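Progress against Task 2.4 (sequence-to-structure conversion) is shown through the following example record, which the project officer requested during the mid-term review.
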Amino acid sequence: MSAFLPRTLLAALALVALPAAQADTLKSEAEVRALTDKVMAQAGAGRTDDAYGMLSPYALVDIRAFETARTNARSSRMAIEALVGNSVGYEFIRSEKVGESLIKLTYIEKTERQAIPWMFIFYKAPTGWAVSTFSNGANVDALFDR
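Structure tokens generated for the chain above:
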């Protein structure tokens, strides 16, 4: 399993280093949570491509890089399902805020045999909240580091 999931994680993390794009923004922390709940509802139903699609308007990175990450996730989905089974839902784990400008929301995508952590970091830009970075991968142990 670990051979496939880190590719998605690395692709998502690589988005941070690219030039910023003009993103739509969310006006409140409640809107941020509502969006990530919708994203995770798609992920929890096995529709990773749709989950990425819901995030793309709010990404603070070059949309081409975001679409590359989305394509990588789409192509690795069948291999992931072969290892961990089908998605059977999701669970919200926690929200963490650092200062007034960063929020991290952590979820798990539930599968038949394994939890897949999803983490979203939103930055409060002058116009509102937008996705700074997100990741999903195999490191379930990281959920317990506190």
